[in-house]
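Ticket #113: bound-state structure for heme C.
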Amino acid sequence: MSAGDWNIEADYQAFCANCHGASGAGDGQAALAMGPPPANFSDPRFWIGEGVDQGAFDVIKRGGAAAGLSAAMPAWGDRYDDARINIWVRYLRQRFAPGQTITSGENNDEAVN
Ligand code: HEC
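RESOLUTION: The complex was predicted; output attached.
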């Protein structure tokens, strides 16, 4: 699969929306049975602070349990390489909390588009 073939939006709807919700609010069908619920990506506050991107990267790669979060969050490291996981983080940030003000984090001032 080359980068150009990857439809991340389709993957989101296929693999993530069931829990994280079509609009990223953590309100997918499967989330109803979960405690704690998935993160709310559409709340700009979720994305503020140092290490948020790294944290999201680790959770996507190794799953929730490895990060001390809910084990309901699967690990995706077998499906996506590191470059793609980085793209996931940018995608989630950009798609669900566009136009947010980034208030801290040295590496967060890069343009995400
Ligand atoms: C079976 C349900 C489920 C699926 C499918 C799922 N997630 Fe999650 N996800 C969760 C839960 C539950 C949490 C963590 C909640 C907690 O403990 O804070 C989580 C956490 C996360 C976090 C970290 C949020 C934080 O608090 O740092 C990211 C990023 C994330 N998921 C991305 C994805 C992506 C991308 C996909 C699809 C490729 C996906 N998830 C698929 C349930 C799911």
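RESOLUTION NOTES: The radius of gyration is 14 Å.
TICKET STATUS: resolved
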